[in-house]
Amino acid sequence: MSSKKIELDHKDMVHDSAIDYYGKRLATASSDSTVKIVNIGGASAPSQLLATLTGHYGPVWRVGWAHPKYGSILASCSYDGRVIVWKEGATGQWSQAHVFSNHKSSVNSIAWAPYELGLCLACGSSDGSISVMSMQPDGGWDTATIERAHPVGVTAVSWAPATALGSMVGSDQLVHKLVSGGFDCVVKVWEFVNGGWKVESALVSDMHAECVRDVSWAPVLGLAKSTIASASQDGKVVIWTKGKGGDKWEGKMMRDLEAPVWRVSWSLTGNILSVAAGEGAITLWKETSDGQWEQLWTKASGEPQEQATEEVIAAQ
User: Is 272 left (phi over 0), alpha (psi -120 to 50) or beta?
Assistant: First the structure.
């Protein structure tokens, strides 16, 4: 697996990175309060800084690209309690299309919904709530709030695939569900029913003894089960699965990495899980036919942060 080093020119720690739909541009979030957009270039071509987005007043924790169906749009969230939706103009100039400042403390996680559900962004905050922002036909934004989603603070949010279990892509039956993790060590699944968000399941277990750092809902692609990965400060990665209908979620510890696990992310096909843990260690995992998880690839700690960031992206 090849790797490429990208110079980001941030003045402080980089917390997140996201590659766009076409694999051409990288957005990064940093404690220097900025978001940077970089043209990755080819295997041998140098990367190029395209833009530095300023507007946050504290560390920026996460960035995410919207589906290109809605234009060139990026979202970021910060310790300052703000979520900014950025839009690129025809000349490559970025502007703040929407600033959401309803949260009372740090916004720790953001996630764009599957494009089939519209331009919709979920935001999880240390104030304990989850906000779901939806752009309306007139360009305005509506917001639904899940109060006390995790009363001691929300750390992560991830959307379920829009395609129902067992359905083929393009089905008219759409799924409106979220998964969240919190400082309370709990994973929760939310469903939009009767005009509001309700908790479907609270996945309370003794497998996460410390706060849940990340959650990631896997693509289904016609499979007959839903799968969620959760990662914790205690070093454990748990795989949650649920079949159709009234089946309950079942959790199985994939691995104890014996170091805080910061991020989990599924490949586009949903069969490979990337895990970022400790001081920059990256691993890729795949489930075997007997239900066990084997490690496919690893990047040891100690490589430059920019290189680690790019390798995670390349691996996915």
Answer: beta
Contact present, 26 and 18 (Cβ < 8 Å): yes
Map residue 181 onto helix, strand or coil: strand
**Domains defined along the chain, listed by start:** 162-315 (2.130.10.10)
pTM passes above 0.70: yes
DSSP 174: B
Angle at 36 between CA 233 and CA 216, to 5 degrees: 35
The yes-or-no verdict on residue 315 having pLDDT over 80 is no
Cα dihedral 74/110/215/59 (nearest 10): 100
Beta carbons of 214 and 156 less than 8 angstroms apart: yes
- Residue 207 is given by DSSP the state S
Any bridge partners for residue 123, and if so which?
A: 110, 131
